[in-house]
Amino acid sequence: MLQIKSADCLHGVDQDKEAVYTFKGITEYWHYGNQKIDDRGWGCGYRTLQTLISWFKLNLSHQLTFPDIYDIQSILISTGDKPQSFYKSHEWIGSFEVGLVIQTITNV
């Protein structure tokens, strides 16, 4: 897993730009194919969510079990957001689902 520090994100940034978006702390970068799941073409929302969850774990010392894609799908089913047929599907998730999972896992 690739770990990224916030200072690394600012290295080489064009100072003429109007805005720079970054984070404080350290996170892990989750990419397609992690956890031996071929999620090319449909996994970007899941991998972005996993990257965000890693920030909570590494910076706020949250004691949480790190979810794989199927765990994320199960969480969304248990919240009532998705039907049972969503499990092990290749359906995308968006920012709303990301928020539900973060809220469920971190209790924030």
From TrEMBL:
Superkingdom assignment: Eukaryota
Q: UFSP1/2/DUB catalytic domain spans which residues?
A: 20-107
What's in the keyword line of the UniProt record?
Hydrolase
A GO term, aspect molecular function = deUFMylase activity
List the PANTHER family hit by this protein, alphabetically. Answer: INACTIVE UFM1-SPECIFIC PROTEASE 1, UFM1-SPECIFIC PROTEASE 2
Tell me the protein family, please: Belongs to the peptidase C78 family.
| Name the record gives this protein | UFSP1/2/DUB catalytic domain-containing protein
Taxonomy-wise, where does this protein's organism fall, top ranks first?
A: Eukaryota, Metazoa, Spiralia, Lophotrochozoa, Platyhelminthes
